[in-house]
Every structure is written in C-alpha cells, then in structure tokens.
C-alpha cells in the first residue's frame, strides 16, 4: 500500500484552477477524457438511482478486473452499483466488459474525483452510497474522512501493505491509525498483509484471500479465436504486459529461439497499448492487432496492442511470460494466464505479486527466471516438451479453483455493511 501523503497534502493546498489546468494537460497525453473531466470535480447531472447503492473504487486495470466478479454477485440483489476508477485504460475495459457480463445497466461507471475536500463532499452528497469498498491500496484521506462524517460504512478490499510501506507508515502511526479507523473492516490479500494492518490500528481484519486469484477466466470471442488460431502455422508464445526496457530483451529472445524453432511466433503485448506503434517499429515493422493485422503465418513477431483481449491472446499460445519483471517494476499478475492453463514464467522482479508468485511456483505452475537468457532457455525446454508444458498449465488451473468462493464472501460483507449490519459478527 502506498498512500501518497505528500501528494494528498499538495492536492489539498492547490487551487481548483491549477488542478483544472493539470487535468487538461493530462487530456493531451491521453490520460483523461475531455468530455468527462467534470467527473474529476464530482460534477454529475445524473440523478442518484432510488434504493440501495453500493460504491466500489478501483484505481486501475488490475484492481478493476479483480472486483468484477464481486460486482456481478452484488448485482443479483436489488439496488444499484457505482464503480469509480482513475484511468482511461480501466474505462475502456469496462466499456467492453460490463456489457459482456450483462452489467451494463446495473453498474454506473464514473471517474473518481480528485481528493480535494469540496469535490469529495460534492461526490458523496450526490451519490449517498449506503456502503463503499476501496480496492487494494486506494486510500484517499479526504474521501474517507468525508464518508466517515456521513457515517457511510467503508471496507478496504483485497488490501495489500508491503514491508517497505509498513515501515514508512509506522513513522506516522498516529495519522495512519486515524485513516485506517475510517474503515469498518479490512480484507487483506495475504496473512502477512493482515498482520501489518493489525499492527497499525484496531480495525477488524477478515481472513486473507487474494481476489486476483479468484477471478473467472478472461473472456474470449470463440469465433475470433478460431480464426486467429488457424493463421498461426508454428510454435507460439506470449510476452505479455511488457514495459519499456523489456522489448529489446524479448526481441533478442525471439531471434535466438527462431534458430532452433523454425516458424516461431512471438506475441508481444505492451502493458500500455499506446506503445504498440513503438514496439512494432522496434520489431522491424511487425503487424499490429490494433490495425487489424493477423499474426504472420510463417512466424515472426505480432504486436497485440488492444485493450481487453488478453483472454484471446493467452489462449493462442501454451506459454506465457509476464512482463514488468525483467526490469525493476515489480511485475504483473500471473494468475490470469495460469487460470487458462498456460505454463508461465516471470523475471526476478515480482515484488507486486510476491505471495501469488510464491503460491504458483510452489504448486509447479510458474517458473522464475533470472534474466532474458534464462527465459530463452526455459522457453526452449518447454517448446521441446509439449506434454510437460500442458501438465504445468493444468496444475495451475486446478490450484486456483480453491479461490472460487472468495468473490461471494466479499459481496456478502459489503451487503451486510449496506444493510447496517457488521461485516464481522461482534465487530
């Protein structure tokens, strides 16, 4: 968990005109949607729906994905659901995923207002949620304080707190204790996260469980999958969620493997789709999914630079590498390809998903490699052993089935809070 206290203090002091200038500049960089900037100030003409309303806030893409199964269960009961996020990427995903899940008319999406006291107040006075869930590390003090003043029950969902962040928070323990006290209950990702939160306050802690391990398989259009599968003529692997600094390493790995695996197709997926053109250029003008290009049948590189299609991309190959892990970023969520029965590798930098990586590695569903050379060696071995690769994928898919009930448990806690009942008996 990384509460940006300095940023929060700065936002509180910055004038509204200065913040509006900042938001307009973000529009120019593709980080905001111009016609939806009023939402960042909690200006919204949409009437609040009648009846129960539960509000969920997820920062970005990964957090949004993890909470969708919870929203689907909550939508089975009467009332409305409000989901706020902070990124354009998450909005694009929701525009695609909510209709696919039959939630388009049940879940209202808005961009979260900046954590300015008057904007936070305007947002809560308009929507009047009966309960709210903040996902993972989304701690905005003004929003939380305003909700507490209105006696809105709050839950911290899938909460994580690294050892480093815990050490920093201990230095401001009184402030942290007050902020965590705004929550009625905390649901931690792991037992270690729960212990760290417990050491900082008295908020009740639920049993641990990572929602990112409980998500359903990523969706796919089977007709598109069939069409693309027939256009792939040789061995194939996916390098997903790549960050700057990893592209060249993946291209080098592809060149080396192509010498012993003729017709090899390497699918490169940028973490941020806007890097697709840059990635394709580095690969010598590789075809791009966003332009409608099919993968080259004779092998090579194909850049999959679209949003919401990882379910399709992972299903095209038995092997997947998760980016953000060959550089000092912290890695991406390996559970998504594992759930689809893919054999998965990650690099040495997986601090963002330490517990998930350890769980999957111990279960034989994931391999850690120290560098790009080791990644190439792993891929070579896996491409030469299709049976062993399939067995590795099956282990992972079976391992994650144990977490299938977690979304319903979280939805139950939120529903009890909205009804005015403690999420934990006796709390």
UniProtKB/TrEMBL annotation:
Designated name of the protein: 3-deoxy-D-manno-octulosonic acid transferase
Function text: Involved in lipopolysaccharide (LPS) biosynthesis. Catalyzes the transfer of 3-deoxy-D-manno-octulosonate (Kdo) residue(s) from CMP-Kdo to lipid IV(A), the tetraacyldisaccharide-1,4'-bisphosphate precursor of lipid A.
Keyword Membrane included in the entry's annotation: yes
GO terms of biological process kind: lipid A biosynthetic process; lipopolysaccharide core region biosynthetic process
Domain (3-deoxy-D-manno-octulosonic-acid transferase N-terminal): residue spans on this chain: 36-214
Alphabetical keyword list: Cell membrane, Lipopolysaccharide biosynthesis, Membrane, Transferase
GO cellular component: plasma membrane
Pathway field: Bacterial outer membrane biogenesis; LPS core biosynthesis
Protein EC: 2.4.99.12
């Amino acid at each position: 968990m990384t509460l940006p206290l300095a940023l929060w203090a700065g936002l509180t002091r910055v004038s509204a005109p200065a913040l509006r200038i900042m938001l307009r500049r973000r529009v120019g960089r593709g980080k905001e949607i111009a016609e939806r900037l009023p939402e960042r100030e909690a200006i919204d003409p949409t009437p609040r729906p009648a009846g129960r309303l539960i509000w969920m806030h997820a920062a970005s893409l990964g957090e949004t994905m993890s909470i969708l199964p919870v929203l689907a269960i909550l939508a089975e009961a009467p009332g409305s659901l409000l989901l706020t996020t902070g990124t354009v990427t998450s909005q694009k995903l929701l525009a695609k995923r909510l209709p696919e899940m039959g939630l388009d008319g049940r879940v209202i999406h808005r961009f979260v207002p900046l954590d300015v006291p008057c904007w936070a107040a305007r947002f809560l006075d308009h929507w009047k949620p009966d309960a709210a869930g903040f996902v993972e590390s989304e701690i905005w003090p003004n929003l939380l304080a305003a909700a507490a003043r209105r006696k809105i029950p709050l839950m911290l969902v899938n909460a994580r707190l690294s050892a480093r962040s815990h050490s920093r928070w201990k230095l401001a323990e009184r402030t942290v204790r007050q902020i965590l006290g705004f929550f009625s209950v905390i649901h931690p990702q792991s037992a270690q996260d729960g212990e760290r939160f417990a050491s900082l306050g008295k908020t009740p802690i639920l049993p641990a469980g990572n929602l990112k391990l409980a998500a359903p398989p990523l969706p796919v259009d089977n007709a598109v999958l069939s069409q693309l599968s027939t256009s792939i003529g040789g061995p194939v692997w996916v390098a997903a969620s790549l960050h700057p600094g990893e592209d060249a390493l993946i291209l080098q790995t592809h060149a080396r493997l192509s010498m012993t695996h003729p017709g090899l197709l390497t699918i490169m997926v940028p973490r941020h789709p806007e890097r697709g053109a840059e990635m394709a250029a580095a690969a010598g003008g590789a075809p791009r999914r966003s332009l409608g290009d099919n993968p080259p049948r004779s092998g090579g590189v194909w850049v999959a630079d679209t949003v919401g299609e990882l379910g399709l991309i992972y299903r095209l190959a038995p092997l997947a590498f998760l980016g953000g892990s060959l550089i000092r970023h912290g890695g991406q969520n390996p559970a998504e390809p594992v759930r689809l029965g893919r054999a998965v590798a990650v690099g040495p930098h997986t601090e963002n998903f330490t517990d998930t990586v350890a769980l999957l590695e111990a279960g034989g569903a994931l391999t850690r490699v120290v560098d790009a050379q080791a990644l190439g060696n792993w891929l070579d071995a896996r491409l030469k052993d299709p049976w062993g690769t399939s067995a590795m994928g099956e282990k992972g898919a079976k391992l994650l089935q144990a977490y299938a009930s977690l979304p319903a448990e979280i939805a139950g806690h939120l529903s009890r809070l909205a009804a005015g009942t403690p999420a934990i008996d006796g709390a």
